[in-house]
Design goal:
By secondary structure, the chain is mostly helical. It is built from 17 helices and no strands. Helix 2 runs antiparallel to helix 4, helix 5 packs antiparallel against helix 6 and helix 12 runs antiparallel to helix 13.
């Protein structure tokens, strides 16, 4: 298996080839993360409208926690890619081991936080019945967070050394296993109790730990231990840990700012009733599925920008970022057209409830407008992370999503009585602003001398 490109790309075609070589398997792997959530959402929705609402409100606070954890580990792929680009792959193993320690600690804290889900949902203004059901689902989802973050740390290591395919294969297997466990635990087949949304959450937690086990087995069996220093001492943890946190803390904060802003939008929808929250969550789930592909391109941008930084190649930094952003725009535009052409078909995949469908269909049409800028902005932030430029991007996220999107969403949805479509209009505005601001920042960063983290 080829870990690195044989030569430095110099043409647009070569940059596209190297970007897609990294991005395509990562796109599928990231898509798989949300496909699990999508299947849980759809199967919970077919159990009952209440189960759909419980699962949706449980995912809303869990996603910010998860994305903060993923952001904290972002230093893994950046540091690994920069080490490889600098011709020092033997230090990658110590980076991976340091990431595992960070992942386990963050995952344990998040699992503990999820145990208090009902109290949080009540404090957020959710009705008592939705808070109780959502709290049970959130606690079950929390049990799998440490396993998922350990898997993410391992997959980031593999992506940083140019091996994204194992994560894709593991994710495909995880989705198959998740559907099977949902069939047993959501609907009560095979002698199991019908647990609805809570059963979907239990199945997902089991799958997440299985993903980590499979990823570790791959590293130990198929990655060259000597070349990448899998068991070698490498740099001491007291040096690697601060470097990882210097990249990861602002990245985690940026993820948290974005995800918590979107969670706030879901909670605003929850104030409008079960039909509104369901009708908003379905288009958002579809957008998130499309967004996972853009995250794959963002990861490719991080790796390729990181490689270019490691070898001191300023032109390579520019090419890597802008090519990935262009591919993301084309990819998301294609999906936006598909959503706009068949909104009823897509929403019926999740529910047959007439009240939910009446909200979801017009909201999905607005969602199609938000798709392109949402994909482009995440690629730019991935490129900035590859260049170790993380704090300014975090500040720009606060402006786009908290200062603009959330207040605008509340104003349109509640005082203006536009409901879920109004929330989605605000999403489109926030994503567009983020894409413009982050693109401007990347242009600045890629025009100056680049240095390793």
């Amino acid at each position: 298996m080829r870990d690195l490109p044989a030569t430095r790309p110099h043409t647009l075609r070569a940059h596209l080839r190297e970007t897609m070589r990294l991005a395509f398997p990562v796109m599928l792997a990231r898509l798989g993360v949300l496909t699990i959530v999508a299947m849980d959402t759809a199967m919970s929705g077919h159990a009952s409208a209440d189960d759909l609402a419980w699962y949706v409100v449980a995912v809303a606070p869990q996603v910010p926690l998860l994305l903060v954890g993923i952001g904290l580990l972002m230093g893994t792929v950046v540091m690994t890619a920069q080490a490889v680009g600098a011709g020092k792959p033997k230090g990658c193993g110590a980076i991976w081991r340091t990431a595992l320690v960070h992942a386990l600690g963050a995952g344990a804290l998040m699992a503990l936080a999820c145990a208090f889900g009902e109290s949080f949902l009540l404090a957020a203004g959710q009705p008592a019945d939705i808070a109780a059901g959502g709290g049970r689902v959130l606690a079950a989802l929390g049990l799998g967070l440490p396993g998922l973050l350990l898997y993410v740390a391992t997959s980031f290591f593999l992506e940083g050394i140019g091996r994204p395919i194992p994560g894709m294969v593991i994710m495909i297997g995880a989705n198959v296993l998740n559907v099977g466990l949902n069939w047993l635990l959501v609907f009560g087949h095979g002698g199991f109790p019908a647990l609805g949304a809570e059963g979907a959450a239990i199945a997902t937690s089991i799958v997440r730990w299985g993903m980590f086990a499979a990823a570790v087995l791959y590293v130990l069996r198929f990655v060259n231990r000597r070349r990448f220093g899998i068991t070698a001492a490498g740099d001491p943890a007291e040096r690697l840990g601060p470097r990882m946190r210097r990249i990861g803390l602002p990245a985690g904060l940026a993820h948290g700012m974005e995800a918590s802003a979107f969670a706030a939008m879901t909670l605003i929808a929850g104030l409008l009733g079960a039909a509104e929250v369901g009708g908003y969550s379905i288009p958002m789930n579809l957008l998130a599925l499309a967004f996972m592909g853009a995250i794959g391109l963002a990861t490719a941008a991080s790796v390729r920008v990181g490689n270019a930084v490691g070898r001191g190649d300023r032109s390579g930094v520019r090419w890597a970022g802008w090519v990935a952003a262009g591919v993301a725009a084309v990819y998301m535009a294609g999906l936006a057209v598909v959503f706009a052409l068949a909104p009823v078909w897509f929403t019926r995949l999740y529910t047959t409830d007439a009240a939910v469908l009446a909200v979801a269909v017009p909201t999905l049409l607005v969602c199609a407008v938000a798709a392109v800028p949402d994909g482009v902005q995440t690629v730019f932030i991935g490129a900035l992370r590859g260049a170790s430029d993380v704090w300014p991007a975090t500040a720009l996220y606060v402006v786009a999503f908290w200062i603009v999107m959330v207040p605008l969403g509340y104003w349109l949805a509640v005082p203006r009585a536009m409901g879920a479509p109004g929330l989605m209009i605000a999403v489109a505005v926030g994503a567009t602003l983020a894409a413009v601001l982050l693109g401007w920042r990347f242009r600045q960063v890629s025009s100056r001398t680049v240095r390793r983290a």
